[in-house]
Write a structure and sequence with these properties.
The protein has 78 residues and is mostly helical. It contains four helices and no strands. The chain starts with 6 loop residues before the first helix and ends in a 15-residue tail after the last helix.
């Protein structure tokens, strides 16, 4: 899946998946919290999602092929 993400957008996504807050992401990357919000908005637009949870679920669906329901819970696999 080619999402055409910038290096910084991929870094922000990885930290988001790790459960980091905007302030923690900013500190880790050496950027302002405002810049983190900008990267998140760009990331959400490119991913076609509107929240952190959706971005995280998409990551697991795409890269780990984990079935995730619309409410963000992992579906049982028989």
């Amino acid at each position: 899946m080619d999402l055409n993400l910038s290096r910084r957008e991929r870094e922000v996504w990885q930290l988001l998946i790790a459960g980091k807050s905007n302030k923690e992401i900013a500190r880790h990357l050496g950027i302002s919290p405002s810049s983190v919000k900008t990267y998140l908005h760009r990331l959400y637009r490119k991913l076609g999602v509107s929240s952190r949870v959706e971005a995280i679920c998409l990551y697991f669906r795409v890269y780990y092929r984990v079935p995730v329901s619309g409410d963000g819970f992992v579906e049982e696999v028989a």
